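C-alpha cells in:
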C-alpha cells in the first residue's frame, strides 16, 4: 500500500484565526513555509510552473480591477470535496460578470485534479481563480483578450491527525454591510473581497477572531468568509439568500446533515437580537469547516461553550468529509478509504 506524500511537509500550520487571550486558536490553515514548498507546482494558463516562478501580468485586470472570480476548495484523503459544486459556482459567478472561461467544466476539474496529482497531494487546500486577463490600464473589459486561469494547491493537515473537537471563537457585528443584489451581487464569488477585509479589520481592532456582517436592512448575513447558523429554541436557522449571503457549499451540506439528523432547519431572515440570544451559533466554510461562535459583541452565546447541536453536526461533518461519494477522487487507483493501491502513472501537463 503506497501513501501519497505531501503531508510530511506540513510543519508551520497557522490557525485560520489568531490565538486570542482565553480562546484556543482555531485549527489548521493551509500553508507551510514557502521554502519547503518551493517544489510545489502551480497551474498557470495550462502549464505547471514552479511555485516561486508562478506569476501573471501586472496588466491583468484581476490585479488592476479585481475583475475575476475564484473558488476555495479542499481535498481530504485523496478526494476533492464537492469539486463539482465548486466548479459550478465558479462558472455561475463568471457567467454573471460576463467572463467566458475558455475551457469546459470537465477540463477545469481535470486541471485541478492534475495539479494535485503533480504535487502528490491527498489533503490540500485548492485556490482556483479566473481573471479577466491582460488588458490596458482602462477599465474596458472588451480590451482583455484571454482570461488567466490559476490553480494553487497547498498541503493541509493529514486525516491521520484529525481535529476531533470544535474550537470556539469570538466575533463582533461589523459596521460594514454585505453587498446588495443590485450592486456587486453577494452571490458572485469575485476577486473583490474589500468589504470582508474591512470587516476583518474591525475584528482585528476589537481583538476578536471574526466579524459578522449584516445586509443593508440590518439582518444577519454572514461572517467575512463563512456562512452563519444559529440554534434557537432547539431549531436551526441560517440566513436565506435574500440576506446577502454567498451560496456556501459547506452551508448546503450542513443543512442536509442537520435534516438527516432530524433537526428542524429553516433558511430565513435572522435579526441581530436573535443571533445574540441564540443557544448556539456556528459558522461554516471550506477552510474553516465548522467553527462555533461563543461570544458576539461581548455577550456570551448561551453558556459561552461549544453547544451539543454544534458538536453533533461537527462530528457528522468530520465523518462525511472524506467519503468518496462527497467529491471527486484525485487518483484513479484510489481505494475507498483514500489509500493508493499502486504507483501512479497519470498523464502530465507541461512542467516548467
Ligand atoms: C463571503 C463568504 N461567505 C461564505 C463562504 C463559505 O462558502 P463555502 O462553504 O463554499 O466555502 C465563503 C467562503 O468561500 C465566503 O467567502
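Residues out:
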Amino acid at each position: 500500500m503506497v501513501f501519497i506524500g505531501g503531508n510530511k511537509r506540513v510543519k508551520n500550520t497557522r490557525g485560520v484565526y489568531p490565538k486570542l487571550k482565553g480562546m484556543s486558536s482555531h485549527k489548521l490553515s493551509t500553508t507551510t513555509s514557502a521554502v519547503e514548498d518551493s517544489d510545489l507546482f502551480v497551474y498557470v494558463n495550462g502549464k505547471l510552473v514552479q511555485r516561486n516562478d508562478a506569476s501573471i501580468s501586472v496588466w491583468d485586470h484581476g490585479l488592476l480591477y479585481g475583475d475575476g472570480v475564484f473558488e476555495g476548495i479542499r481535498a481530504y484523503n485523496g478526494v476533492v470535496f464537492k469539486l463539482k459544486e465548486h466548479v459550478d459556482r465558479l462558472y455561475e459567478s463568471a457567467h454573471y460578470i460576463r467572463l467566458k472561461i475558455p475551457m469546459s467544466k470537465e477540463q477545469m476539474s481535470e486541471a485541478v485534479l492534475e495539479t494535485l496529482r503533480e504535487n502528490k497531494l491527498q489533503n490540500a487546500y485548492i485556490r482556483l481563480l479566473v481573471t479577466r486577463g491582460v488588458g490596458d490600464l482602462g477599465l474596458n473589459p472588451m480590451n482583455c483578450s484571454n482570461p488567466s486561469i490559476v490553480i494553487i494547491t497547498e498541503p493541509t493537515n493529514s486525516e491521520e491527525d484529525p481535529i476531533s473537537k470544535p474550537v470556539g471563537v469570538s466575533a463582533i457585528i461589523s459596521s460594514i454591510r454585505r453587498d446588495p443584489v443590485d450592486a456587486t451581487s453577494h452571490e458572485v464569488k469575485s476577486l473583490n473581497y474589500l468589504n470582508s477585509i474591512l470587516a476583518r479589520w474591525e475584528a482585528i481592532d476589537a481583538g476578536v477572531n471574526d466579524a459578522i456582517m449584516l445586509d443593508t436592512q440590518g439582518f444577519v448575513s454572514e461572517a467575512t468568509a463563512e456562512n452563519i447558523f444559529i440554534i434557537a429554541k432547539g431549531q436551526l436557522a441560517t440566513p436565506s439568500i435574500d440576506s446577502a449571503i454567498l451560496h456556501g457549499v459547506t452551508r448546503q451540506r450542513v443543512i442536509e446533515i442537520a435534516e438527516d439528523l432530524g433537526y428542524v432547519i429553516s433558511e430565513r431572515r435572522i435579526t441581530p437580537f436573535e443571533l445574540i440570544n441564540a443557544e448556539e451559533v456556528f459558522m461554516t466554510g471550506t477552510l474553516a469547516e465548522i467553527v462555533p461562535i461563543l461570544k458576539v459583541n461581548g455577550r456570551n452565546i448561551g453558556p459561552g461553550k461549544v453547544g451539543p447541536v454544534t458538536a453533533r453536526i461537527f462530528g457528522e461533518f468530520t465523518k462525511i468529509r472524506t467519503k468518496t461519494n462527497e467529491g471527486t477522487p484525485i487518483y484513479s487507483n484510489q481505494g475507498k478509504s483514500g489509500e493508493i493501491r499502486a504507483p501512479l502513472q497519470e498523464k502530465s501537463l507541461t512542467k516548467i
